[in-house]
Amino acid sequence: MIDDLIKLLGQDNVLVEREDLIAYSFDATAVLRQLPRVVVFPRTAAEVSAVLKLSRGHRVPVVARGSGTGLSGGSVPVEGSVVVCLVKMDRIEEVDARNFTLRAGAGVLTQAIYAAADEVGLFYPPDPGSMKVSTIGGNVAENSGGLRGLKYGVTRDYVMGLEVVLADGEVCHLGNKCVKDVAGYSMKDLFIGSEGTLGIVTEVLLRLVPRPAARQTLLATYSRMDAAAETVSAIIAARIVPCTLEFLDSKTLRCVEEYAHVGLPMDAEALLLIEVDGHPAAVADEAARIRELCAANGATSVRLAADAAEAARLATARRSAFSALARMRPTTILEDATVPRSELAAMIRFIQETGARHRLEIATFGHFGDGNLHPTFLTDERDGDEMHRVESAMREIFAKALELGGTITGEHGVGLAKKAFLKGQLGDGSYALLRQVKRALDPDNLLNPGKILDL
To answer: Are the C-beta atoms of residues 351 and 362 closer than 8 Å to each other?
Structure first.
């Protein structure tokens, strides 16, 4: 099979040596690893199709991969698998300013999508924390979110069409540039967030929006975490929908300040980073009202970014939270759970109590505006006893999120890391439906097997 892959793609696009394969044996979860048998780099949908047909003929599993920035083990290979790495499918094929659309290969970086839209005065809102290095195909496969999710939604909300290669090598084109299209089932939505278990996305048609004319960024600090949560509720109750409404706990903000040096207060228990965008007059009004609401709900200080450069520094500091925390211990496990906004304070308190009970160091940050929290375990995978306590704490945190009406993942996906918890959230009927869909589209279970669910 490897000889056939080399004939198909060329020697330079096929990796088989162990030292070359190591970099493709894990994703950003770090603790989940498995060497593939071979890694290939197709450049067209036709080549992806040929690889899938060849793999199917040999009954070899296939795992699609972009930059490997996923946080659920979704692109970790299975034993003996072919990893189809799509990073060479990196062309932006079209920016259609008249129809507010952009068409790009699966390997195009998210930041490049944003920049291409920005050049024509348009805006691509989804902004996962890894946007400078993550690929748009990976964003679609995981239905990635980001800091702007409260106002603008997630990747799914901007996908108008897909080119997908199915398990048997069939190439399908789903969706189009039409704003309205209700012809048949919305098949493209089936593949968004499917983590490569139903088909391999090779090209994406994205919806763009007009670029906001103005932005303002505010930083509010609190001596009580509950006051920060109450501020969020007050902002939403005032019918203000910020572009960004981010939260850092005391441990995270100290690490970020030591890492980024942007002037964050080291003695605060909680911090809110808030950005509003839109028409200049509306932005000025909303920023003023948010300042009042922060002060009325217990903020010890509220700071307005002086200019765009300072706003960018503050946003970069928030985006660096994972990197800052990763400096603290040998292993950093960034988790993801979402609860209704009304339950944020209760959920954060529970995470803190769980960390203390299991003698673990847990820092929490996240997207307060949409209830998405990232409890981050600072640990050492070489310490078996500590890792056992980490696993126990994770189970308790996910169970609590479900108890509060939340979900086990708001944006990272299920993959390997959360597969064991999915049935508990969905229930028997919904879980069985997922298995039926998987069997229908991948009857031989060769596409990313063992991710999301087991057949």
So the answer is: yes
Residue with tokens 């195909």: 137
> Which segment of 40-44, 87-91, 265-269 scores lowest on mean pLDDT?
265-269
Q: What is the CATH number of domain 329-417?
A: 3.30.70.2740
Q: Name the nearest CA neighbour of 440 among 120, 166, 59.
A: 166
Q: In what order do the strands lie in the sheet with 14-15?
A: 14-15, 38-40, 82-85, 62-65
Q: How many CA atoms lie within 13 A of 105 on its CB side?
A: 18
Distances in whole angstroms, Cα of residue 29 to Cα of each of 69, 76, 397: 8, 9, 18
- Calculate ∠ Cα 71-75-81, nearest 5°: 155
Cβ within 8 Å of residue 445, ≥6 positions away: 61, 438, 439, 455
pLDDT, tens digit, for every residue of 218-269? 999 999 988 998 999 899 999 999 999 999 999 999 999 998 888 888 889 9
The pair of three-digit structure tokens given for residue 146, joined into one six-digit string: 């980001």
Cross-strand pairs, 203: 105, 163
Calpha distance 165→156 (Å, rounded):
19
For residue 390, the SS3 value is helix
Domain with CATH 3.30.70.2190 in the chain: 214-322
Structure-block tokens of residue 246: 């981010």
Residue in this structure with the two tokens 């040999």, named with its chain if needed:
58
* CATH architecture for the domain at 1-211+418-455: 2-Layer Sandwich (3.30)
The CATH code for residues 214-322 is 3.30.70.2190
